[in-house]
Amino acid sequence: MASYLVTGGAGFIGSHLAEELVRRGHTVRVADSLITGKRRNLEHLPSVEFLEGDLADLAAATRAVAGMDYVLHQAAIPSVPRSVKDPIASNNANVVATLNMLVAARDAGVKRLIFAGSSSEYGNTPELPKREDMPLNPLSPYALQKAVGGQYCRMFTQLYGFETVSIRYFNVFGPRQDPGSPYSGVISLFATALLEGRQPIIYGDGEQTRDFTYVANVVDGVLRACEAPKAAGEVINVATNGRVSLNELLRILNRIVGTHLQPIYKEPRQGDVKDSQADITKARTLLGYTPIVPFEEGLRHTLEWCRSEHGAAARR
Ligand code: UD1
Fewer C-beta within 10 Å: the chain N or C terminus? Predict the structure, then answer.
């Protein structure tokens, strides 16, 4: 059994990684600033060691990595609009903390660090689906910060022989994705609106498309990346290779929930990408990855969770 540090482990994707690692019998430590993460997301995992701290502080990063075999660096301020509004805070969380983690993990003799990259790094380049060797065109501070983090990772492998893998996530969704802020992922916002009988908001004409990826697929891809022999120094898309527009997403959600709510259309968001879809050939080849939970099944699991949260919130 091995030891894993999950940074951002009290957040949405991080808590799913921690849960699966515990299920597999590994030792898990979580480091989280609790800016967007919540202790509640780890309540069902009492064996997880929890460190509260800001990884933009090198001393906190050094404490977090001590004695760990693997680092899954998920901590971030994960929002395009939030980065447009406050690029300095998001740079500290997404770039400064990543560099600290790389230095600290390298010096502590960590075997491999997996970095949470983003589909937003590709921007609006015309070709679809996006392959990892295509040029990047970041349209927001968030996208640029993720591109820089990924390039730092690759450079640490080349310069210092420290093994890293950057996994580019594509619009991940699932249980525990917080619907509580205007910066939340669109699926959590739409699902909550429908369950509350409110009209969801669509920014733009709703014809923008995304490769929405259920969180269990991402967990599988990331854990494969820890061990895959040829993955070190690589950037790898982990997604489904599908593409769904927001209008279509809303139709499907309305059907599953049994509602007929029409959207309210508003001006497009600054820094928003038009279309996003991943080529996942590299993940298949290097990681033996294949999506295990299809889109609609993922939506059903997510809605079940949203419903039970609603019930819990009403009882609180
Ligand atoms: C982007 C990245 C994603 C990253 C995420 C971090 C791309 C293609 N994807 O997601 O990899 O993990 O940032 O947050 O850049 N929208 C609405 N109504 C809402 C909320 C959102 O119409 O209430 C729209 C947005 O304008 C956007 C789409 O839905 O067009 C998806 O938005 P969101 O879920 O915030 O994620 P991205 O910004 O696409």
Answer: C
Instruction: State in Å: Cα 47 to ligand 1 middle.
Output: 34
Contact residues for 67 (Cβ-Cβ < 8 A; gap 6+): 3, 108
Q: Is 186 in the pocket of ligand 1 (CB under 6 A)?
A: yes
Residue 171 CA to ligand 1 center (angstroms) comes to: 7
Q: What tens digit of pLDDT does each residue of 202-244 get?
A: 999 999 999 999 999 999 999 999 999 999 999 999 999 999 9
Q: Which domains does the chain have, with CATH numbers?
A: 3-172+215-240+282-293 (3.40.50.720), 186-208+243-277+296-315 (3.90.25.10)
Task: Give ∠ CA 205-206-208 in degrees, rounded to 5.
Answer: 105
> Could you tell me the pTM of the whole model?
0.97
Which residue has tokens 């999506």? 291
Alpha carbon of 216 to ligand 1 centroid (Å): 19
Predicted confidence at residue 298, as pLDDT, reads 98
Whether residue 142 lies in the annotated active site: yes
Residues in the chain where the model's pLDDT stays below 70: 312-316
Q: How many helices, marked H, and strands, marked E, lie in the chain?
A: 11, 13
